[in-house]
Prior knowledge:
Blueprint: E1 3-5, H1 9-12, E2 18-21, E3 25-31, E4 37-43, E5 49-54, E6 60-64
Antiparallel strand pairs: 1-2, 2-3, 3-4, 4-5, 5-6
Amino acid sequence: MISAKSIPPELKALGIIRIDETTNMVRYMWMGGFDHTGLEVERLSDDTFQFYAGYNDKEGKIIWPRKSNAMLPE
């Protein structure tokens, strides 16, 4: 289950409007509504981290570790 967290003033100053969190993932959102823009940080099963930049609801890519463009699952 995703739970929304309060936004610290330092992150509000960057334009972050929402923070969602689960056990192994934190998502920082800059834009909501029809097109969601954000950064998702996920802890993988091998204790490494994956950073995913979401440009809208259908487009985004893994930006760390560096891989080919990865689209959101359908």
